[in-house]
Amino acid sequence: MTPSETKNLDRYGSDALPWSRARDALAQDPTPDVTHFLGTCRDGIPHAAGIGAQWLDDYLYFTSNPTARKARDLAVNPRCTISARLPGIDLVLDGTAERVTDGETLEAVAAGYRAGGWPAEVEGDALTAPYSAPSAGAPPWHVYRFTFTKVVGVATVEPYGATRWTFDR
Asked: The pTM is what?
């Protein structure tokens, strides 16, 4: 995937960051040291929640119990943000999230979580496991695909810089 527009936001003379730097940071295997934060808004009331996101085929995927506030917010308004402090770069991604129910994608997402240490399995049109985050609620957990259209990155190690990438998706 290639950005349709790259804008250098750095005011100190650094070059624009290449999209590959942000993409490679997003695609790293999940670790407990990296938390993604989902921002939703329903009826004008913002909400943020930590999520265990994973990169797969140029999208971020995450889960939610259907009764959790984030899932209820997304049912009303799919527009959202995901923010993450990744090794060497901080990112804020703007886009939309939609629930995924096809078995092939669910299995790929479950396999990614298993590789990261969470024993997720597909059950029907959702995931289940013997445990999850304390705030995740009981299974099943719905899977969401996050489609981003704008990403802002700020490098936290050399070479420094700040860049906005726009995508036509």
From this structure: 0.95
